[in-house]
TrEMBL record:
This protein's name: GDSL family lipase
Domain SGNH hydrolase-type esterase, residue spans: 40-228
Highest taxon in the source lineage: Bacteria
Species per Swiss-Prot/TrEMBL record: Niallia circulans (Bacillus circulans)
Pfam family, one: Lipase_GDSL_2
């Protein structure tokens, strides 16, 4: 049997601080016929923008999973540079995307960065009402995305990758970091309502020495950053093959 290790982080804020509660779970799935089918959806992080090798976190993740099994792993990547949650809501309704989602063994999603950051405009001109509206719209779209996927495929674990703050070393970093943490918390709350859906935090990976892990555009991860993201996701995935 394939055993997928699932975990997520719930963040509780008290007087400006955060406490993290790691809640691991395990699910046992039947071994997929014909190998392991991975489906990647989302934005430029799924596309791999910033990685000169063009692999992105999902490419490195595939490599890491291949080290754990002799099964053939097939990756289908539908990441679109610049995609927002509204874009993904429309994309997930396309016939070919739904066909891939139906047969996927594991589904990975990066989305929300373009909703929040909007090319840096949101965090460079902070307005609480605007951010609240953006978050509400995003989480409504996220709910629709996950509802659609679950109507097609009730069994495949879904890994939703959280946001990091690419501006954490700039002015107003305390304010921008809290915005990103709050955004991630809302995302984790929305995703927790769906079975076998795991919110994967990345905020802490980039929090210290963020520029070390960013591409020259100071926004997307570089090779090191994507590899760290892949390590984080891979640590949540494990399986066992049942002996005949």
């Amino acid at each position: 049997m394939w055993m997928f290790g699932l975990g997520w982080v719930l963040v509780d804020y008290a007087q400006g601080s955060k406490k993290e509660l790691n809640t691991p779970n395990t699910l046992t799935e039947k071994a997929p016929s014909g190998g392991l089918q991975l489906l990647a959806l989302g934005d430029s992080l799924t596309r791999g923008t910033g990685d000169q090798a063009g692999k992105g976190y999902i490419g490195y993740l595939k490599d890491k999973l291949a080290e754990k099994t002799d099964e053939q792993i097939t990756l289908t990547n539908y990441g679109v540079k610049g995609a927002t949650s509204k874009d993904l809501t429309a994309q997930i309704k396309q016939q070919e995307i739904q066909r891939q989602a139906k047969t996927a063994d594991i589904i990975f999603i990066t989305i929300g960065g373009n909703d929040l950051f909007q090319g840096g405009e949101t965090l460079s001109h902070i307005d609480d009402n605007t951010i609240s509206d953006l978050s509400a719209s995003y989480n409504q779209n996220l709910k629709e995305i996950l509802t659609t996927i679950r109507s097609i495929n009730k069994e495949a674990p879904i890994y939703l990758i959280g946001l990091y703050n690419p501006f954490s070393d700039l002015e107003n970093s305390d304010a921008t970091s809290k915005i990103v943490r709050d955004w991630n918390y809302a995302s984790s709350e929305t995703s927790s309502a769906f079975a076998k859906t795991i919110f994967v935090p990345t905020y802490d990976i980039f929090q210290q020495n963020v520029q070390t892990y960013l591409y020259s555009d100071h926004f997307h991860p570089n090779k090191q950053g994507y590899e760290l993201m892949a390590d984080r996701v891979a640590s949540l995935i494990s399986w066992e093959v049942e002996e005949n």
